[in-house]
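Protein modeling request. Please complete all fields; requests missing the sequence field cannot be processed.
Requester role: graduate student
Desired output: 3D structure, token encoding
Chains: 1
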Amino acid sequence: MDLNLKDKVFLVSGGAKGIGAAISSTIAEEGGIPIMIDPSLVEAANLLEAFEKKKIKAYQYPQRLSDPEHAKAAVDYAIEKCGRIDGIVNNAGANDGIGLEKGNPLDFRKSVLGNLGHYYDLVHYALPHLKKSRGSIVNISSKTAVTGQGNTSGYTAAKGAQLSLTREWAVELLPYGIRVNAVIPAEVMTPLYRKWLDSFEDPQAQLQKITSRIPLENRMTSAEEIAHMVVFLLSEKSSHSTGQWIFVDGGYTHLDRAIGNS
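Delivered output (262 residues):
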């Protein structure tokens, strides 16, 4: 299916690693131009080299969005390089383990702001350009927003807020034809997930325990499977979908997990 993304420009926060890298690559494969907002120099250089070999246009803005001015500068960079913005993928974030009992109020606030603030900032500064292109916004949330996890209050609070903003923005931006949707992954093998898995005494046993509970094929979701849904939502092929929370998780969040053991 041709998603008609040729020469359209998409900002992807955290776009050089894990799910973000898969999203940037899928945009590029569909003829779009990804702008990876990501401080990861080595990973971004590898992606850009691969794109260049295929004569695919792509860019990196090497900055972590820890301040509103960083988001404004990333938008200005995109306009300078490409002259337009057709979509935003809010993806960057980290499950930083700031819990209730073992956390503290200052770290909680820092975690929420660090995982949430840049979602607002990037869309706010890109909005004039999205209005011109009737663009699309996709927020990457997490199943922890609806299931909980334990010992990660800041992260889950931010992820829940991202889902709320998805519907709030979908309503506010209706007059401009800008669509806003969220994709909710569950178990995806990213570098951060691998780091968490390796914290267990027996990582392989922990992985088998997790995958046994994923109903569809008893396996983790691939980053590419997340990316395919995200890029579909960016495209005009999903032209009447807005305000949606879409789970790409092999049924992990909603299906009876006992199914996975049957």
